[in-house]
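Hi C.,

You asked whether I'd gotten around to modeling the 362-residue construct. I have! Everything is below, sequence then structure, no commentary in between.
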Amino acid sequence: MSDLTLDMQQTAQPASAAERTALLQNPAFGRVFTDHMITLRHTKERGWHDWRLEPRQPLALDPATLSLHYALEIFEGLKAYRLPDGGAALFRPDANARRFRASAERMAMPLLPEELFTDSVRALVRTDRAWIPTAEGASLYLRPFMIGTEVALPPKPATEHLFCVIASPVASYFKGGAKGVTLWVSENYTRAAPGGTGAAKCGGNYAASLVAQAEGEREGCEQVVFLDAVERRWVEELGGMNVFFVFDDGALQTPPLTGTILPGITRDSLITLARGMGLTVREEPYAIDQWQADAQSGRLREAFACGTAAVVAPIGHVKGRRHGFVIGNGEAGPVATRLKAALTDIQFGRTSGPQGWLDRLF
């Protein structure tokens, strides 16, 4: 357990109640931010130190900061939810803390104690509790991240780091209700290769996916789906979400975690919930050509993506240079609908879930 004490430096100029109410009406994802942030520093000599809650403000970085040149950066995404009695809770923050450590290890960064991660997130939410939305489906999105701050140009692990947590109230990620999203099959680009950083939540993975995302948007698609880097055959994941398939026998399938796919916490939660409902869940490879054949034959009944931001997003259409098919009637199916309802009911405290999933803050 860390012996650090959080230095509370609250802002003298918080947003007024009227300003905050206006901003919370329908906040676009990641465009509105709360009054405070958490900062925590690490050096090779001192370890973790200077743990602070302070007013949200720009970071001052030297132009030769290592993270600006070699992408020494990792991050997480989790949410705080308003509960029916007016309280608030986090969903499985311990899982985010463990994944953050795994990402840090892969990126040659210092391992943040899990207690410091969760205590930092809790402190920020408690301080900025008025920013947690009350609208249906809205929540407070938390973005913990770490960057290498050493001033140096040689490509090497940094000896100085900054951990930070910021918060952003968000409404629903995808609009349109039951309408399924349209995916673009990327054939020119891959997200990750064996031995790479696919299982780490680092900014470089997302930066490399953006050119494919832009290609998909030009083709009228909301998201891109990546294939494996070796055979260009197996479905891996979307730009920022895992993917599930539902077959005519009621079984679910999702690509296995082999090091090239991010181990999503929403993915893991849905697997647990589905198996608790008596559904079969297979973690097995699935080929893009088989996906098309199964959709056209009717063997595949549903497909959906999942992640912290979107929760569950039904997939309606898939397009590509060699592919084009509709899944079911192009809308959310009963399994995806049921799983999303079960998960969000737990997150918003409407029903109880597995022990430890909901971390009540107040």
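If it helps when you're writing up: The two ends are 22 Å apart (CA to CA).

Thanks,
B.
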